[in-house]
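ok so for the tutorial part 2 we go from a plain amino acid sequence to predicted structure tokens. step 1 is just haveing the sequence, like this:
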Amino acid sequence: MKNYIQLLTLLFLISFIKVDAQRKQKHKNQPPIETSTTPKLIVGIIVDQMRYDYLTRFWNHYGEGGFKRLALQGFNAKNHHFNYAPTSTGPGHTSVYTGATPSSHGIIGNNWYDKEIDASVYCASDDSYNSVGTSSDAGKMSPHRMLTTTITDQLRLHTQMRGKTIAVALKDRGAVLPGGHTANAAYWFEGGDVGKWITSSYYMNTLPKWVTDFNTSGKAQSYKKAWTTLKDISSYVESGVDNNVYESLFEGEIAPVFPHSTPNLLNKTKDFEIIKYTPWGNSLTTDFALEAIEKENLGKDAITDFLAVSYSSTDYIGHKYGVNSKEVQDAYLRLDIDLERMLNTLDAKVGVGAYTVFLTADHGAINVPSYLKDQKIPAGYIDFIETRAKFNEFLTYTYGTTDLVKNISNNQVFLDHKVISNLDMDVDDVQEEIAFELLGYYNMNKVYTGYQMWQNEYTRGIPYILQNGWHQKRSGDVLFVPNYAHISYPKTGSTHGSPMIYDTHVPLLFYGNGVKKGSTVNRTEIPDIAPTIASMLGIAFPNGTTGTPIDEVIK
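step 2 — the prediction. this is what the tokens look like for a chain of 555 residues:
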């Protein structure tokens, strides 16, 4: 009996060893789980005021090394949208990098009425810090009003602060907000008669030598030159006529036509602000970004760095000349060349296949309504002075005072809840009465109340977009949306900010390390960008993320 038990035990051990060996062999033959890709450098590019159709409309004029390289050798999300309003620069840059909407990250506009201090605030201003590189207040900035982390913050945290983040833009908010709370540096361009790249003491106390050297190199002065078309202007058939009534003038011009060569463009020592309104602003941004790659040794080791670049001149030009202008077309053809310069430098300095790029926009733009009206398309302008006068009459007649409205801005009405309480009324009833009044005004499309934003969870359409842009503590009591193609703006140039599709539809291109080649027409949204990059890197999502990774993009 004893021998029998020993035999059974031996057979069991042999069987166990065999099964265990087979299991180990099976696992040995399996490929390891790939948790992340490891680009040496992420380059995030935001083109200010780029509609999606600028990619397709000017396609035949682009070279092979810029937009086409990104789109054909990378991934093109063709149905990419902002899922909130207002569609403006501050919220746009923040939403790209936080993977969230203003309802979470708190940047509800470029400027907004702050209910706590009863004053208007700017999204990036911060008087607790000093300007660096200038004697003006232009550098008194920080990201302190942004309530969540960014993808740049998460990369810094993941690498124990060893990975660098550098952010560059002509606009301060285009650098400060993408850089996040932990950026090594954010730089922006002070125009006026200064013409230098500056920063804030939030990041450093003195400019690095390479920035000082760049500022004294004469590079900015070299762009104080005439703006002529890159190609024969007669080939720009994708745009309207050059001389028209829908465009603004540079000082000293009698017609908005090429070449633009006014004295303030040609003056080498003054009025550097004008560079922002020409394609040379984007070229100067590229020059500075490439210098940052070189001097900051970005992408030189195995620890991933991040370069955030925003091209702001396209927005200035769009506001001045409009969607259908030859100036906008020429600006994008020249930006295409700057993108090619950027990619070629990345190939040489970081290495082909060693970096990842994404390109998107912070908002789109409306075609000039006066032009649309002339084409018999419903469009128009809203006189908010006249509207406010009519609204004040309603307030006085209904409530006996206008004091219950503290502010109207960003298409929102802010009420004084104390005054309403003293009048022995309920806030939600007042919101509803005001909403019905505004809805009856000419050229008003939709109106919603803060109470509706509180009580409902919208999943589609304009209320969904408005709710994503509405922050419980920072936003107003009543939200109104003008009719399609109706804006409060001069009758020349384009603008943005609405929840309409011309302001929400923007490009999204991914290229390089970890990116599948392809495209999709499935809807993607701005907050999806940050979690997509985080998934590529295998790092934590920004802490307010509401978007989801775009799985078609990731290898």
